[in-house]
Amino acid sequence: MSLERRAPLVRDLRTFFDSRGFLEVETPIAVPSPGLDVHLSAFEIVTPPGKPARFLSTSPEYQMKRLLAAGHARIYQVTKAFRQDELGERHSSEFSMLEWYRAPADVDDVMRDTEQLVARVTKGRVRLEGRSIDTSPPYRRMTVAEAFQAFAHVAPDDTFAMAAHDEDRFYRLLVDHVEPAIEVLDHALFLTEYPASQASLARTKPGDPRVAERFELYVAGVELCNGFGELTDAREQRARFLKDQATRRTRGLPVYPVDERFLAALKQGIPPCSGNALGVDRLVSLACGTREIARAMAFSGGEL
């Protein structure tokens, strides 16, 4: 795929948000905390003796939410993100990410943004390996519990218990049964309402604390994004961070610092908001009829 094909698609991402009153922002790549998600590994930057640790950003989330706290209600950016141990057809240690936030907003607002954006970039259809996948809105939705029941034959209560107490088995069933079943669908699908134990930075759903307001979008089996109805409670967020640090310590993983300025912004107050992080290389690849993100990049990791 030529760069001449990528350029207008990426430009279209910006046009989409500019036309809807979003402000394009830039946040630092070198950050004091790369995020505490147990499943992410960051690159640490060498800093002079006595200077605070810095890491390459795995996501601009913390800093963008600080901008929400400062009063910027609709923001987006196209940026680079860095994650160790990610290499393959759909992964790269350095990749392009589109991230955006709305305030005030609920998770449905951002899901509508997502399906309208993907439909625009793909012109309503992805053609891949002789298949035709419908990407015209509205997209179908399926909760994680529904997906596990339909595709892995696991009852909802058992899915929630497994996610909380046997995470490895939860992800094995997701990868071995749920995602392959989603891959053969001829339409885009939102997987919604992840178990609360998999909430990350999402708030739990009002009226059902078993699940979080978290969604992922799949097209032709490709997970394009990870979106949240955002957690804005500083006390709850700190508790989650400390739990993640303890889990990292137990597993022998690097224990990254808590971003205190991010927590201070939450304490200062952020309006009800939602956001999404979308893989630009993945979306561009699909729009051009391939799952191989290396074909949507000027240089893949293996070419450096």
Main-sheet strand order equals 1-5-6-15-14-13-10-9
Instruction: Write down the overall mean pLDDT.
Output: 95
CATH class: Alpha Beta
For the biggest sheet, the summary is:
8 strands, mixed
Helix and strand composition category: alpha+beta
Low-pLDDT residue spans = none
**How much is the radius of gyration in Å?**
19 Å
Shape: globular
Secondary structure: helix percent: 25-40%
Strand content: 15-25%
Q: How widely separated are the two ends?
A: 18 Å
CATH superfamily: Bira Bifunctional Protein, Domain 2
Q: How many strand elements?
A: 15
Order of helices and strands: HEEEEHEEHEEEHHHEEEEEHHEH
**Domain unit count:** 1
CATH architecture: 2-Layer Sandwich
Q: What count of helical segments does DSSP give?
A: 9
Per the CATH scheme, the topology name is: BirA Bifunctional Protein, domain 2
Describe the protein in words:
The protein is α+β, with helices and mostly antiparallel strands and 304 residues long. Strands 1-5-6-15-14-13-10-9 form an eight-stranded mixed β-sheet, sandwiched between helices. The mean pLDDT is 95. Helix 4 (144-151) packs across helix 5 (156-165) and helix 5 (156-165) packs across helix 6 (167-183). A hairpin with a 2-residue loop joins strand 13 and strand 14. The protein has one domain (3-303): Bira Bifunctional Protein, Domain 2 (BirA Bifunctional Protein, domain 2), CATH 3.30.930. The protein contains nine helices and 15 strands. It has helices at 3-18, 61-69, 107-122, 144-151, 156-165, 167-183, 234-251, 260-268, 280-287, and strands at 23-24, 30-31, 44-45, 54-56, 74-82, 94-102, 125-128, 131-134, 140-143, 189-192, 204-205, 208-212, 214-219, 222-229, 274-279.
